[in-house]
Amino acid sequence: LHEEFSLGTSLQPFLDGKQATSFFATYRKTPKPSGAKDVRTVFCQYGFNDLTPGRRSPSPFSTAPLVRDHIFEHGRCVALQEQKTALVLYTPKLALENYPISRLFVQIALPIHFGPIAHIWLGRNPVSKGIAQSSRHEPVTIWEGRTLLHFRPLCPTNWGCCRLATLLEERERYQVIEFQNFESWAPRIFTKQELINTLSGFVVEARTAYSEEEAEAVIEELSHATVSDEFYAERRIVHYDNGKTKLAIAYSPRTTTIQYATINGHAYK
Predict the structure, then answer these.
(1) Tens-digit pLDDT profile for residues 141-175
(2) Could you tell me which residues come within 8 angstroms of residue 217 by beta carbon, excluding any fewer than 6 positions away?
(3) pLDDT tens digits, residue range 225-240?
(4) What radius of gyration, in Å, describes the C-alpha atoms of the chain?
(5) pTM assigned to the model
């Protein structure tokens, strides 16, 4: 919790992820908020096909022909946080086995019902009108009011056909940021083991910045952070170091069981 923003995570998912979220952030857009229009909320979910908040989409988790939920989670999330830095790690739910899939992605969604986000960067390039794309997984930074949020993708699994690895769009009155694991015009079927092997997520850094020059300086600083993301023996092992904070975690994507989690070399408690 910070004067300008809040950032919260859960080490392991609660139930199936629809009743509670493992990642949540809010920030104020003005120095003295007077209502909902002066604050913004940040959601995330793992998605497939054309899933978008506010849009009716079929789901393998519901018997209804069309489901419309604000956030309908299709992944399992493990997160580790120290103050303003967090690892948010995703794998798709095994219920997607044998379901026709044309896209797999982790999605960050910000409501823009009261107006668009003031400043967005893809990598180090400013984004106009909330629309941008890249064939590579690149960081996305948003800066609004005095709050800067920097999202660095962790998507080591690429099932191919990813014409666009990073995608920014405005949809259904949401600013959507997507880091893709798979994209194809022809849907394919994923086995349970392939879903377990599909690794996704991001590192999020929350900072304060009082000018555009200061925001760009933060982006430059965070570009020097190091990360490793490995998978073997059905364990995902992630290490992140921004020079001030070191996060490390090893867990099973199959069960979300944590083998170890450390913050600055000390066991997470």
Answers:
(1) 999 999 999 999 997 888 876 678 999 999 888 99
(2) 209
(3) 999 999 988 899 999 9
(4) 18
(5) 0.92
